[in-house]
User: What shape does this take?
Amino acid sequence: MSNYLAIIGAYLLGSLSFAVIVSRCMGMPDPHSYGSGNPGATNVLRSGRKSAAALTLLGDALKGWLAVWLASYYQFTWQLDNNTIAIVAVAVLVGHMWPLFFKFKGGKGVATALGVLLALSWPTALICAAVWLIMAFGFKVSSLAALIATLISPFVAWWFIQHHNWIIAIVIIDLLVLYRHKSNIKNLLSGKESKIGATK
Assistant: This one.
């Protein structure tokens, strides 16, 4: 029973959309209503409120990290197996992408995926974050940076993570992130993708 509760709890935690929560607390428009319509840090940045974007990024990453960290920290207390931790990692991201509390209209999961990676393997997370920063500052296109970091993460994880089911979870997470970026991929191929900091 504790295994099921951990997975459900991870999904519910992931369903907390910080783009919407932060925007409401700061008296800003719903992030679904401008820019790309994506409730994520990059779209919130288009509002011109850098502090709101930073809080969104932090909150979305923190919930990914917290869900996996709690499952790992209490693994023996709650008698959770490694498969459950892998499923928890996926469940918190699914919650972010299809949040129960916000009509299943969630974000694309980059920050949450980074938080999950940080809990599963901090070296993997740091390398992927470094790649994202280099690409983001170099090309000023958030989606391109996210896609490159996503594509390399399974290969980096293979070096640092011993549990094969955790690596499988990372591959599933990557596929979900790529799926949520399908419109960005089309825009990148057509040269229409907006750059970081572009206003609404």
In short: The chain has a mean pLDDT of 90. The chain has ten helices and no strands.
